[in-house]
Amino acid sequence: MVICLAVILFILIRRFPDTAKLPTITQLKPVESEVNDSEIKEEKKLVSEKENVLSYSPEINNLIETARKLTADNKHQQAEDKLIEAIQLDIRCALAYSMLGDIYLHRKKNTEAGEAYRAAIHHDPKEPFAHYGLSLILEEAGRYNDAVAQLLLATRISDNNDTWYKKLGDLYINLRMFSKASMAYNKAAYLRPDYGHYKELALASQKKQQEHKVKTRV
Question: Are residues 164 and 125 both part of a single domain?
């Protein structure tokens, strides 16, 4: 029988009371217009000190792999069932929560997605896709500073995804941080040199930065 995410999270809170203290998506601490590097460094310290929980049983690994294939085939309900089954076997399975978040985000169920990503990060702060998923939710809510903070964490954990740096550049553009946007686009171009559009975005950002400097001098 399919158990909804709310029930799984209820079980999580009962067995791990600290989970209830985690902020919801709407309660996440706002960040300043310039992301505080000291806070990012402190988060990275916590990440490095957190016990690695990515080693799962063969049964759970099989459920996760099956869920991946089902998701690729757009069989999201069946994939959800497999992931919840994995969580029933190991309530600390961060990867299963993160993948559930992706499914709910695909369904436009942002509240459920956010809760799933929160659970993933609670059990494994080094789960980059959960941070990335949160950044997408925050971006959609217009909270670009907070989205940047989450995406920076994702890229610091896993820095080889060109699309994440492209997204980071887009967020900086929305914040009118054109110099940082250019750097993000250049990183994306470095990771994928065969895709010239990233370089074009970087050059366009540099041009906007120059124009912005001229306007501020007037």
Answer: no
The dihedrals phi and psi of 199, each to the nearest 5 degrees, come to -65, -40
What are the backbone dihedrals phi and psi of residue 178, each rounded to the nearest 5 degrees, phi first?
Answer: -70, -35
Counting the structural domains of the chain, the total is: 2
Tens of pLDDT, residues 112-127: 999 999 999 999 999 9
- Residue 3, number of CB atoms within 10 A of its CB: 14
Q: Of 116, 147, 178, which residue constitutes the final position of a domain?
A: 147
Sign of CA dihedral 208, 209, 215, 218: negative
Residue with tokens 């559009």: 197
Q: Could you say which DSSP state residue 22 is in?
A: S
Question: At residue 39, what are phi and psi to the nearest 5 degrees?
Answer: -70, -40
- Cα distance between residue 174 and residue 168, in whole Å: 10
Question: What string of H, E and C letters represents the secondary structure of 100-141?
Answer: HHHHHHHCCCHHHHHHHHHHHHHHCCCCHHHHHHHHHHHHHC
Q: Name the residue among 23, 27, 31, 24 with its Cα closest to residue 148.
A: 31
* Domain span at 200: 159-218
pLDDT digits (tens, 9 = 90+) for 40-61: 444 444 444 443 435 789 999 9
Cα gap 58→51, rounded to integer Å? 20
Q: Is the model's pTM score more than 0.85? A: no
Q: How many Cα atoms are found within 13 Å in the side-chain-facing hemisphere of 120?
A: 27
